[in-house]
Each structure stands twice: as C-alpha cells, then as structure tokens.
Amino acid sequence: MLARLLPIMLLVLALTARLDAYPYSDFFTLEPAPQLSVNLLGSAIGNESRYAASHEGFQLEQTVTPYIDLVGRAAAYQIYQGGGWDSPLTDHPGTRPRNFGVFLGGVSIAPVQGTTFAILGGRDVGDSTGARIEGDFSSWIALHSRHPINVSFVGEHFYNNGLSSGAIDLRAVVASSRDLMWLFGAGGQLWGGGSEPHLMKEFGPALGVLIRPWETNIDFQAGYGNNHGYGIIAVSRHFTWDE
Amino acid sequence: MNRALLSLLSLALAAPLSRGLVFGQARIGSVARVSGIAFLQRDGKQSAVVPTMAVETNDRFGTRAKSSLIIDFIDGTELQLGESSLITIEQRHASATGRRASLLMLWNGKLRSIVKAVLAGAGDFEVHTPNAVAAVRGTDFETAFVQGKPCPEDHTCMRYTTVGVSSGKVAVSNPSTPAASVLVTEGYETTVACESPPTSPAPLGMNEMGAPGYH
After folding, report:
1. Residue B38 belongs to a domain
2. What residue in B sits closest to A32 (Cα-Cα)?
3. Residues of B in contact with A39 (CB under 8 A)
4. B113 and B82 in contact (C-beta within 8 Å)?
5. Domain extent for B196
6. Nearest by Cα to B116 from B138, B93, B143
C-alpha cells in the first residue's frame, strides 16, 4: 500500500516544490496567520460476528505554510473482542479487553483547495507495541456547488501483526442550513495480510452530520461484509486558535 | 448599470430631496457591547468606544486584536464587528415613504449583520468591501474582508471577501463584474477574489471540512 502511495506523494512534491511555479510560489513561505487546531476524536466499531472496539483521542494540526501542516495524533484503543480492519493485534480468544495507545506524527499537504494528503508514522504502546504507518487522502469535488462530493481514502499498515487496511468513503453534501450540514454516501473497508490470509471487505451506506454551533461531526456507517453486519459511529469536535 | 452604483446614486439623489427625513448627525443607534478595545472616528477625532454611546451616520468604528463590538440600530438591526475590523456607516437614510437604507463599508475584518426581516428588501441594506457588494434579501449574514493573505480560491489573489448567510438571502457581486451577481441562501457562502465574480455558493465552512474520521 505504501508502495502505491509513495509515487503519488513524490509526484505531488515534485509538482509543488518548484519555488517559482505558479501558483505555488508561496509553498515554502511561512503561513502569515498560523493556526493551531485540535480535533477531539471518539469512535466505536461493532461487528456482528467477530470484532468490537472503541477509540478516543485527539489530533493536533499546526499550520506551517499555506499548504503544509504538521500533524500529531494520540489515541487510546480498546479491543474488546476479535480482530478487524483497524486492529494491529492478532485475534485470540482471551477474555479481557486489550488496550494500547497510538502515537502518530507526520505532515499534511493541501496541494489544491479542498484536497489534502497526509502521511503519518508512529508506534503503539501497551498491548500492541509495533510501529504503524498511515496515509490519508481527501478531496472535495464540485466544491462550489450546492452538493459538493468528498472522496477519501485512509491506508494503514500495522507492523505489529503485518495487517494492511484501506478505508474508502464517498459522500455528498445533501443539505446545508445555518446549524447543520448533512452528508450521505457510502463507504467501506478492505484489509488483509499478516495473520489475515484472505482479502477481507465490508461496505455500506454512510451518513454524516456537522453541527456547526458545536463544530462537531457525527459520522455513521453500517453495512455488510466478510464478517457479516457491522456498524461504526464516530464523533469529533474541532477547535481552532489563531496565533 | 451597476446595481450597487445605482443604489448609491439613488441614495445620493434622494438625500437632499428628503432633507427633513435624513438622519444626518442624529442618533441612529447605540453601542450595545464592547469587548476589548474599540475606537470611534467622528468628525476627524478618535475616541474610545463605550457601551450606550450614540451611533451616527458617517461614524467609523474599529476594533483591535481580540476585541469585538456590537451596535444596535434603532430599527432593530444588529451589527457584530469582529476583531481587527474597521467599518464606516456611510448611509442611514429614511425616504418619504418611511423606508430606510443602510450602506456599510467594511474596510477590514469581519462583520455579522442581523437585519430586521420586516425591513429587508432589495437594496435596503448593503455591506460593501473594497471588492464586493452584499445586498440583503434577508436577515442574518456575515461578511469578511481579508487582505495580505492568499485567497483559498486563487492563491495569487491577496485580498478577498467571503459572505456567509445564516438566514434569508443575500445578493453578492463584485463591482468589477456587476452582472455576475450570486444569490446566497441560508447555510451557504460565497467568496469574491480580487476582481473575479463571486463563486457559486457552497455550504458554509467547506474550507474547513475534512474527511470523515473513524479513528
């Protein structure tokens, strides 16, 4: 997966690294109005037959240039049973929940408006101790329309159990008002490698709502796959400070 | 002809004809709240802004960093001036029919305008920035004029205006391209970059929107 992401990243850097290139002449110029943002994250994953987990944590983003942010994330993971697309642990029939912390750092690049590409790396601490690497891609299509469409992909590799996974999401803004923005689409996960010899997959519809007064996103996805029915709910709250 | 210029022209022509009804230097509102440091420039003099202070036509209000100001007009319209912002209340006029028209110039920073719905109508309330005109068709909208920072729509442009609408409708145009007016409705916003026409309305806050995060 990383082998596929690397050429894309290099291409983006090659296209943007020319200091005299229009319109990226300020690509390496320090952001005149830097911002620090914090995203509080929490999610729960349930799978009909095999997997139950929850995560909570926060992500810090510091603007460096108009196009580049530094990113750091700390999260606590609880795996209650089984193994799934985002678990670095080998499935085992133990009775106690397994807990570990995830610490990641990296860089996020926004080569064009509405498109971000981030590469993060780090290590787990606790019941999982392996390294991990993550690549995030998100792009808004038809940004200036009543129904912009987001395409996103998150690729991960866990060195702890050798698993690689990809989460894909496609959704459109279906309604926007003063306080709420509703998004609807579909998403899914693919994973395999390491202790999972087969390519596993699950897909289903996705619903999201942004509650503007609270700067809070709630995302829900449910569907069906190799592990039968599943559901994911995620809540995030965003804070931004001008420096 | 440019609708904004037409509005200005009609206001300018109407003013002397209805001299008795023009508010002139009369009180047209008052300062409701000050947070931090705000200043008023009137008749060439500058003074600190304090609550209950009278607001008059041609007043210029400014705020420093981490400061804000709320002005209530007599008709119920509320202006919320954000930090490091500067506005001039250029017109406040009552015609023979009793209709009032307001023209506010936002020189820098962010201004939220909550206009009384009963007074809303074409040309009744306009916020101008150096490169955009926002004419109210409704009640609650926010205008921001940014200088010295690349516009998200066009990184070569270093001055731009954003207009976001919380309720009602606002017609937005660029005086450089007056024919290309965009009607922005509740929950949407537009950006005017330099001499370009306004962008098609997009949902509020799209520039800050990321992807769904499940972990």
Report:
1. no
2. B149
3. 213
4. no
5. 3-23+77-206
6. B138
Range in A170-184, A227-241, B81-95, B169-183 with the lowest mean pLDDT: B81-95
Amino acid at A66: P
CA distance A207 to chain B (A): 10
pLDDT higher than 80, residue B72: yes
Helix locations, B18-115, DSSP H: none
Is position B62 within any domain? no
Residues of A in contact with B201 (CB under 8 A): 144, 146
- Counting the structural domains of chain B, the total is 1
pTM to 2 decimals?
Answer: 0.75
- In angstroms, rounded to a whole number, what is the distance separating the alpha carbons of residues A27 and A19? 7
Query: Cβ of B150 and A167 within 8 Å?
Result: no
Position B177 in a domain: yes
Beta bridge partners of A220: A207, A233
Share of chain A above pLDDT 70, in %: 88
- Domain holding B119: CATH number? 2.60.120
Instruction: Please state, in angstroms and rounded to a whole number, the distance separating the CA atoms of residues A135 and B163.
Output: 34
Domains and CATH numbers, chain A: 2-16+38-235 (2.40.160.40)
- Alpha-carbon gap: B212 to the closest alpha carbon of chain A (Å): 7
B214 inside domain: no
- Number of Cβ within 10 Å of residue B96's Cβ equals 10
What is the number of residues in chain A? 243
Going by their DSSP bridges, the two strands B159-167 and B45-48 should be labelled as unpaired
The whole-angstrom distance between A94's CA and the closest CA on chain B is: 24
Q: β-strands B177-185, B169-174: how paired?
A: antiparallel
Task: Kindly state the helix (H) or strand (E) to which residue B58 belongs, with its residue range.
Answer: none
Contacts 24+ apart (CB under 8 A), B116-125: B116/B75, B116/B76, B116/B77, B117/B168, B119/B75, B119/B76, B119/B77, B120/B168, B123/B3, B123/B7, B123/B10, B124/B99, B124/B100, B125/B77, B125/B101
Question: Mind listing the pLDDT tens digit for each residue in A150-190?
Answer: 999 999 999 999 999 999 999 999 999 989 999 999 999 99
**Identity of the amino acid at B88:** T
CA dist list (Å): A62 to A125, A175, A214, B66, B157: 24, 30, 21, 20, 23
pLDDT digits (tens, 9 = 90+) for A25-64: 677 888 777 889 999 999 999 988 778 999 999 999 999 9
| Inter-residue contact A180 to A212 (CB < 8 Å) | yes
